[in-house]
Amino acid sequence: MPKIKTLIVDDSPTMRRLIRNILERDERLEVVAEAETARAARDAVNRFRPDVMTLDVEMPNMNGLEFLERLMRHRPMPVVMVSTLTKQGSDTAVKAMSLGAVDCVEKPRAGASNDDFSALSNIVAVAAGANVLNVNSRTSYTPTLSGNEYSKICLIGGSTGAVDAIEQILRVFPVDCPPTIITQHMPEHFLASFAARLDTLMAPKVRLAREGDSMEKGHVLIGPGGQHHVNFSGSKVPRIRLTEGPKVSGHRPSVDSMFRSAVPYAKNVVAAILTGMGHDGAAGLRELRDNGATTIGQSKETCVVFGMPRVAAELGGIQSWCDISDLGKTLLRDALSHRKVGPV
After folding, report:
1. Residue 219 is among the residues annotated as catalytic for this protein
2. Which position among 51, 91, 280, 334 bears the catalytic label?
3. Mean residue pLDDT across the chain
4. Which residues of 186-219 are buried (b: 16+ CB within 10 A; e: fewer)?
5. Which of 33, 145, 290, 329 is most solvent-facing, going by the fewest CB within 10 Å?
6. Is 185 a catalytic residue?
7. Is 199 designated active site?
8. Using one digit for the tens of pLDDT, what is the confidence trace for 256-273?
9. CATH for 110
10. Which of 121, 159, 249, 299 is labelled catalytic?
């Protein structure tokens, strides 16, 4: 198999050297060029035709977000953002993922372990095969009061490519949407920026989940990540429980952890698994389905990475498939009643 041609874009020679060292350890990857500015990156794209790019968020003259917007208009390609933990870096990285960047990786901090950053090579290799052409479709919405009474809560789990997918889902949610809880694979600082961004764009109230939160109509809660999984507790009415613990299915926050903790309330749950690499959420979705939940998978055609939904289907956890453009409306419809969805 030919190697994956990779372009590194970062204004720091030290960071470019570190990224190159990590990527070149992976036999699947070949670093064909480096660039320190957006203009140099543009020239390298035209000259070397890379399969995938790592892109710094904060760069001189034209930052990573501005360059990404232009790139996705003229030559859409898989991009992995590489960001510091500054507020500006986190905000820009989240915006970049909503524009079509496949994933975002934290730059290592001084004195911190580089273990997480060493996963960059696999993230880049997987991103190279991402379907980046689907992320530019957008669903229009009008923030209205629906007047509907919802009998179920919505659970959404996603990973690589799901930032844009979640935005498309929430665009059609009304002010009085069903209680909705989301677990998205992202670093803690990025999740805070993600929730803040959604709250300014969407009709419902969107924020990070807090310990003891109740399931309220019109509220979308996002797992805060860090050291916590977002789970549920309570005898009849579920409440949010932020649980510290090791990674589950390779992740923290974990979609499997959220789905499994919702099994006691399964008959009052509509759960969707979105684009993402790996298998997190697949087993938990099967347990929810077995216990009476309505379960939906994002269609292969609209996934950036068809990993988590594929494994969920292999385990028998998915009742129906849905294109991302229709998934928001489908969740709202299925949360209205206990109607059954036929098997795939």
Report:
1. no
2. 280
3. 91
4. bbbbbbbbbbbbbeeebbbebbbbeeebebebbb
5. 145
6. yes
7. no
8. 999 999 999 999 999 999
9. 3.40.50.2300
10. 159
